[in-house]
Amino acid sequence: MSQKGYVIAEVKVHDVAAFARYRALSTAAVEQYGGRFLVRGGAAEILEGPWAAPQRLIVVEFDSVEQAKLFYSSDEYQAARKVRENAGEMNMLVATGVDDLV
Predict the structure, then answer these.
(1) CA 11, CA 56: separation in Å to the nearest integer?
(2) Chain mean position to CA 58
(3) What CATH number is associated with residue 76?
(4) Residue-level pLDDT at 36
C-alpha cells in the first residue's frame, strides 16, 4: 500500500481578485489529480515554537507523493501558478504520510 502525499502551502494574498482566479484554477487541478482539501484557510494558532502565523494555510491530501507531484507539475496547475504570479506569495512542500497501521 502506498503512503499518502500531502501538499502543504503557506499563502499571503496581495491581490484578492487575481487570487480568486488562481483558486478556481488550482481547485480544478487538485480535483483532477485526485486531491482532497483537508485545510483551506481558516484560523491557525501557534502552540509552540518561533512560527509566524500564516495568513492562509492549505493542506491537500493525495493518494501518494507521486500523485501530488503529478498535480504540481501538471499543465493545469502550472497555468494556475501563472495567474498567481503577482497575486500573492506561497511556500509549498510535499510530505509523505505515515504507513497505515493494522
Answers:
(1) 5
(2) 5
(3) 3.30.70.100
(4) 98
